[in-house]
From TrEMBL:
It is found in: Cell membrane. Its main location: membrane. GO terms for cellular component: plasma membrane. It comes from Acuticoccus sediminis. Belongs to the ABC transporter superfamily. This is ABC transporter ATP-binding protein. Residues 517-743 form the ABC transporter domain. Keywords: ATP-binding, Membrane, Nucleotide-binding, Transmembrane, Transmembrane helix, Transport. One of its GO terms (molecular function) is ATP binding. It is a multi-pass membrane protein.
Length: 746
């Protein structure tokens, strides 16, 4: 590790414009450690609670004991970034603190499970070292509020006493020193706030990155979870099996906003707790006796003595004494803060409901825009712009309606918080210490300091009011994200998932490869527990090397049968038996061409490109008639356009043929895989399949009433799978076929 750090520092070019972006992991650790040591010295100064904090702190630090303590703080905080780096590298510190569930998001189905998932994951050492650093800096900032209030009072007092200075002091020097201390303290405080933002933003970034990776992994896991999430979204809200809407928006925006909210709230809670402790201690240390309180409590004790006797009266007699002004601060806060908190809570409940509704409508509108852009070519051909514009406008009017209501709520909340804060800082905070100042027990400097501290304490105790909108947003984001986690958990078990809304009793089995593919007592249903089967397959078998051609009328279930063989049809019963270890390839009607892949990645899809050499990919492209694109294997754009907008329909199907040639499946399902090819190209398509897949099981749906035949007269297909009157049966080629009006795939 040391050698890595050394190499990193030696290669660093200190150009300010790029320096920060070129930090290596090791350099970041050392920079954080050095910064932590510097911050430790400041922390030590802030923990020195004595009158004239700046001067007392510097004097104390000049001693050997103070220096030793500052070094101790520096070493202690420097351990945090080192722990962070060690936790990322050491295998024993990369073990999760919770047991794994059925899916990567199994533990995120509840509010607290979702919030704590990153901190109990395999990256817990990284998470907690950053969290501890954030809390340490927040403690530092909280303590600095006392120092800042004292410096502010010193500054005001130096102005007030400028013309009546204490004997033996230079008023100009006192004023300049007060200005320097006042400015320096605030600069240091805001510097610490900036550094905390960097650390907390890093924690936010890493937590969100880890969480979205878990959701991505879960949705792309086994049992086609992503496809299952897109089903049954038309059911009524709260209906059994209903899937959440706008999954993309939930995973994208909600993960970002949720972790930003929870980290900010955690810093706020801890900052308020520590600040309340530090500020309360400072207020108590400055508290003085308040004469009218003494009189009131004495009168109350006398009344208790008269009413209950001397013994009870003595027990009930209480005198605040020197803690009188501190007691007044506590009374004011006890009356003022709960009232404001209750009002904020009422407004926050309304805001939370509106936030949930706004997020749902935003997601629907954005999803429609994405879908519109994805079919922009078809939209231009059909001329449906006016209808699409009407749809977009209708969806946005829904956003505008809830946005209008949110604006009213937020405006009311802003008026309330601004009024509350103004009264807190300019009136309420100056009332508790006023009797002590009027009685002469407090100097103006002490009165100013106590009032400033009271304002800080009211602000800290009012933390809930300030963050109510953030809490409402956090809860809304967590609810929407946990709904996705719950849906993923349900969808991960296909049998249980589809049994909620229909019949799902398929058995996917395997057998000796010699016996090929077998379907036995298969019945396909639509959604609904009482739905009747629309297609039944008593029993069919196709051995390796045999090709079957599917015939049937429109809507008879040809494509549904293909999906059932591939394990993609949700509702039905029966046994689907595949050869053991068989590799299946399903070439559907619309080829899957992701937009952010290079040409080589598209050709080798769904495998990784590293499995095939450039020569293999180039040979496959040349073989299927796409050789002119060989020079662009590493390009993800062609003439500025993604590949899915470059290829014509026929070229797309040739690209799929190249995939088949590379991957050489044992079972090949073709659902109109030649629909965009002319007759000669269709013959060439089948010739290449026969040459490259001599032992494969091929099942194909085509437009043509008869299967293609090789130039020599030999038929590519030796079996025909008839579907008539809801029953599928298979015969050898040449068997009399039932009359079919039109042949097409579903």
């Amino acid at each position: 590790m040391c050698a890595q750090f050394k190499r990193g520092w030696m290669t660093m070019k200190f150009r300010p414009s790029i320096w920060a972006s070129r930090l290596t992991e090791g350099q970041s650790v050392l920079a954080a450690a050095g910064t932590a040591a510097i911050m430790a010295v400041v922390l030590h100064l802030l923990l020195v609670d004595a009158p004239g904090a700046m001067f007392s702190g510097l004097s104390y630090l000049s001693t050997w004991a103070g220096t030793a303590m500052a070094i101790t703080w520096g070493v202690g905080l420097s351990v945090l970034p080192l722990l962070y780096a060690f936790g990322r590298a050491h295998p024993k510190l990369r073990q999760p603190l919770r047991r794994p569930g059925k899916t990567p998001v199994s533990g995120m189905r509840g509010f607290w499970g979702l919030l704590s998932a990153y901190w109990t994951s395999e990256r817990w050492a990284e998470a907690w070292s950053l969290t501890i650093a954030v809390f340490a800096i927040t403690t530092l900032i909280s303590k600095s509020s006392v120092w800042a209030a004292t410096a502010s009072a010193d500054f005001l007092n130096s102005i007030v006493s400028f013309h009546t200075p204490t004997e033996g002091t230079d008023p100009v020097a006192v004023l300049m020193m007060a200005v320097a201390a006042f400015g320096g303290i605030y600069l240091a405080r805001y510097g610490a706030i900036g550094f905390r933002h960097f650390v907390s933003a890093s924690l936010h970034r890493k937590a969100r990155g880890w969480t979205q990776a878990q959701f991505s992994s879960a949705m792309l896991g086994r049992n086609h979870i992503a496809m299952n999430l897109m089903s049954n979204r038309d059911a009524a809200p709260g209906a059994v099996g209903r899937m959440p809407d706008n999954v993309d928006q939930r995973v994208d925006e909600c993960t970002n906003n949720m972790f930003g909210g929870i980290i900010g709230l955690a810093m706020g809670v801890w900052g308020s707790v520590t600040s309340i402790y530090f500020v309360s201690s400072a207020i108590i240390s400055r508290s003085v006796e308040v004469p009218f309180l003494e009189r009131w409590f004495a009168a109350a004790g006398a009344a208790a003595t008269d009413a209950f006797g001397a013994t009870v009266g003595a027990a009930l007699t209480f005198s605040p004494g020197e803690y009188g002004s501190a007691l007044l601060v506590a009374v004011v806060i006890a009356l003022y803060v709960p009232l404001g908190t209750f009002c904020a809570w009422l407004l926050g409940r309304v805001l939370e409901r509106q936030t949930l509704e706004r997020q749902a409508r935003d997601g629907t509108w954005r999803g429609e825009l994405n879908e519109m852009l994805g079919r922009s070519g078809q939209l231009a051909i059909s001329g449906g712009q006016r209808v699409q514009e009407q749809t977009n406008g209708k969806l946005y009017r829904g956003i505008d309606e809830v946005w209008h209501r949110m604006n009213i709520t937020q405006a009311g909340f802003m008026m309330f918080t601004n009024s509350y804060n103004f009264l807190s800082k300019r009136l309420v905070s100056y009332l508790p210490a006023l009797p002590g100042y009027l009685s002469g027990a407090l100097t103006f400097r002490a009165y100013s300091a106590t009032s400033e501290l009271a304002a800080e304490l009211i602000e800290d105790c009012s933390w809930f009011i300030q963050v109510m909108p953030a809490i409402a947003t956090l809860k809304a984001n967590a609810v929407r994200l946990s709904e996705v986690a719950e849906a993923i958990e349900v969808a991960s078990d296909q049998t249980e998932f589809y049994s909620q809304t229909g019949v799902h009793k398929f058995r996917h089995l395997s057998q000796d490869p010699h016996f090929g593919l077998t379907l036995k007592n298969v019945a396909l249903h639509h959604r609904g527990k009482d739905s009747a089967p629309f297609l039944t397959v008593p029993q069919i078998n196709i051995r390796p090397g045999h090709w079957a051609y599917v015939r049937g009328q429109n809507g008879c279930g040809k494509s549904s049968l293909m999906k059932a063989i591939a394990g993609l049809w949700p509702y039905g019963t029966g046994d689907i038996v595949l050869p053991t270890g068989a590799k299946m390839f399903f070439a559907g009607q619309d080829p899957d061409l992701p937009t952010r892949l290079t040409l080589k990645e598209l050709v080798t899809y769904p495998d990784f490109p590293s499995r095939f050499s450039d020569i293999q990919v180039a040979a496959a492209l040349a073989e299927v008639g796409l050789g002119k694109f060989i020079a662009n294997l590493d390009d993800d754009l062609h003439h500025g356009k993604p590949w899915n907008n470059v290829f014509s329909g026929g070229q797309r199907q040739r690209l799929v043929l190249a995939r088949i040639i590379l991957q050489k499946p044992d079972v090949l399902l073709l659902d109109e895989a030649c629909a965009a090819l002319d007759p000669l190209a269709t013959l060439e398509f089948h010739r290449l399949l026969a040459e490259n897949l001599p032992k494969a099981i091929v099942i194909s749906i085509m437009h043509t009433p008869e299967p293609p035949v090789a130039p020599g007269g030999k038929a590519y297909y030796d079996k025909i799978l008839y579907i008539e009157d809801g029953i599928a049966d298979i015969h050898a080629l040449g068997h009399a076929a039932p009359a079919v009006d039109q042949i097409a795939a579903e």
